[in-house]
Fold this protein.
Amino acid sequence: MIVTRAPLVLKLSGEHAVVYGYSAVACSIDIYLWARLRERNDSKIILRFRDKVEEYRRDRSQGFFRYVNECLRLVEELYGVRLRGLEISLELDKDVQPGAGLGTSAATCTATLAALCRFLGIREDIARLAYQVELRVQGRASRMDTYTSTLGGVTIVRGERVERLDVDPSWIRLGIVLLRKLRSTRELVRNVAQLRERYCDLVDSIFNLIEKCTENIIRAIKKRDLETLGRMVTKCHWLLNMLEVVDYRSNKIIIELLNDTNVAGAKISGAGYGGAILFILRSNLDSLELKELEVIHSSNAFKILCPVRISDGGVEVLERGY
Ligand code: MEV
């Protein structure tokens, strides 16, 4: 059996602006998607995720398995192989749902591709392949999630370039609130494009301010400056509001979080209208304080993950055996 795991991803700044060539900062977190690949005695390819089981058919793919199907198809095409007799089981830590706004689709691609490449004995650029798969499934994609899940740590995305920041982010303590997503990324990206068509100067000025936050966030991470990091992340959130991609529920939770003296900063992570909210902690929350947070948010949010750390590593092959 081959076991791989890929970290999920948070965006610290630059959403939407990154679509127009501005820079963005993302990080991998210590919540993982796991892939287990084993050989079967028959010629079927079976995919498993929680209680869902599906057989891979080259002509059809649906739902969460679309990404896995496309990974299989891409590998078959690129290497001229016909895969058969395999079982791929996927698992998400902490009962995170696919589409939660934590880069679950990117992690699905990187973990699956890492397992397939190891199985076939191929050394490949996993990030490049995973990005191709996201492109095929979604029609458009930025490199942010796939490259960050592959490389791990803190990454800067500038157009087609993605680099890993040479920093130790272990001092950063995070929390995540997960909310039901009310609009798709595709729709929100289109809305911002329409806003920009109408108010080009204004929207470009907002993008420029987001870029300034991004630069300050990079400096703050390098200098271990928690207060600036928190402030800039929060400013980034209010700038995303100006792009009209934040819903009322998210703002209410962010304001409540920012009223907590333990929280140095908070923002939505991702395209908007639900999904993930990240917050940066000033200290380790003890269980009592965490309980209070849960009470505050229980009416709005369906999940709080805390504490969360930035993971150092990216996608990994953990075991191989038959
Ligand atoms: C989505 O997580 C972030 C966006 O910038 C879209 C993208 O980068 O592909 C909104």
